[in-house]
């Protein structure tokens, strides 16, 4: 489950932290428990990023639909 703190992260903050998590996992040298904690954090951050991107897509779709409707009204 995503925490309130994670929900307050901007897309860029979540993405940057996710990049750092992936870098640490790829570098190795962590215990199994640390690796699992990093992986879980990465999953949470990926969900935050996905929500931001889905929200952006919805806003773009709405804007495009509104523009299409306006064009149809002026053409019709």
TrEMBL record:
Main localization category: cytoplasm
GO terms of molecular function: exodeoxyribonuclease VII activity
Enzyme Commission code(s) on record: 3.1.11.6
Catalytic activity: Exonucleolytic cleavage in either 5'- to 3'- or 3'- to 5'-direction to yield nucleoside 5'-phosphates
Annotated localization: Cytoplasm
Domain of life assignment: Bacteria
This protein's record includes keyword Membrane: no
Gene3D superfamilies per record: Exonuclease VII, small subunit
Family: Belongs to the XseB family.
UniProt-listed PANTHER family: EXODEOXYRIBONUCLEASE 7 SMALL SUBUNIT
Primary role: Bidirectionally degrades single-stranded DNA into large acid-insoluble oligonucleotides, which are then degraded further into small acid-soluble oligonucleotides.
Protein name: Exodeoxyribonuclease 7 small subunit
Name of the coding gene: xseB
């Amino acid at each position: 489950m995503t925490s309130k703190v994670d929900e307050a992260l901007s897309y860029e903050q979540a993405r940057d932290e996710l990049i750092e998590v992936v870098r640490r996992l790829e570098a190795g040298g962590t215990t199994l428990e640390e690796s699992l904690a990093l992986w879980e954090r990465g999953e949470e951050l990926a969900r935050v990023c996905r929500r931001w991107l889905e929200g952006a897509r919805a806003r773009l779709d709405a804007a495009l639909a509104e523009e299409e409707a306006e064009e149809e009204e002026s053409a019709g």
